[in-house]
Amino acid sequence: MCTLCRRAAGLVGVVGPPDAAAAGRPASTPPWRAPTRSAPARAALRTLLMGTSIRGSPQMYRHGMSGGRKSIRPLRAGPRSRRGTLVGMAHAAIETSGLTRSFASRPAVDQLTFEVAPGEVVALLGPNGAGKTTTVRLLNGVLRPDAGTSRVLGLDPVADGDAVRRRTGVLTETAGLDDRLTLLENVVIPARIRGMSRVDAERQARLMLERFDMAGRAGEKAQGLSTGQRKRVALARALLHEPDVLFLDEPTSGLDPEATRDVVSLIATLAREQGRTVLLCTHFLAEAGRLCQRMAVLQRGRLQAYGRPEDLAAQLWSGLNVDLDLGGPADDRTLAILRGARGVIRADTSPAGAAVCVEGRAALPSLVASLVSREVPVYGAVPRPPTVEEIYFALQDGERS
Fold this sequence. Notes:
By secondary structure, the chain is an alpha/beta fold. The chain has 14 helices and 13 strands. The chain has two domains: 94-312, P-loop containing nucleotide triphosphate hydrolases (Rossmann fold, 3-Layer(aba) Sandwich), CATH 3.40.50.300; 318-385, Alpha-Beta Plaits, CATH 3.30.70. Strands 5-6-7-3-8-9 form a six-stranded mixed beta sheet, with helices on both faces. The protein has a four-stranded antiparallel beta sheet with strand order 11-12-10-13, covered by helices on one side. Strands 2-1-4 form a three-stranded antiparallel beta sheet, covered by helices on one side. The longest helix is centred in the middle third of the chain and has 16 residues, at 257-272. The chain is elongated.
């Protein structure tokens, strides 16, 4: 093995030929479990996995890369039951207890306690500075907590950080690509650091770049990419090693509508069909509503609310939301009729008519009758659960008041 190959192999913790004895591993050790790394190698792993670049020689990374053919195969993440959860996993995929981290005596995450089940998509919501990114860094072992504990796939991110990062994928809000490297190198190098062989890493990298319509630019430097293109490459990098848990920070920011639709569909597929767990940080509340089973709302580092949207809505409001189709937005006269009707809690105009909240389904017949008797045509009445956006802003309004 040449010097450059040994240096690159040393970075990922595998030196010499690929057989177990020559690599210094017991024969029973699975090939994807790299030996304990040196402190510099751990630092290199940490910077790459969190979206920042290693300041090394691009030539070292570029040496020996082959241009093998793409082999399209589905993403896998270990044996799974028919319902999609990992076989043998009885614990939560993510759990925290009293997790706390401060910067300059100001808490960024304050006594955070919650659990995420395997195969669940949880939206982590909150304004800028609420603690979302700090939470992801704590769960991925990049930051140490001041107090409290966390577990990811049953592992302690502080004590078992390398093991956690081998089984998780992280997409930061900024793509964190190294502009001096090609797109292929930006995707392959983190996989090599995690212990994946060069052949497998390159094959999967080309597959993932193709999935995100970037395969034709695999040999180009990253410096010329647009924001959306950088996000596509970063997504390919986060998914390449088939992680069990995904931490996604603003995965669709900078993407065009078609790419946004594809990414949202991909996230849903990863959770629903492949049982992967997703912690989704996003400002796009409609996107969160399409994807999440539960939502966690942070405010100044504290968990303000956590649960299924329908459960949170029941805590915030009594009654049933109904969309009335009146053939056009309700005028002031129609709104006055609605607000004066028995069983109506509130009523507002909408593009198709009116959005009303009533005490229950039993109130609907008399409501419709009162409109028709006053010559207001009613073309439909459809019950509608509150959206994630409505729940989020109701919580924020309650916090401000």
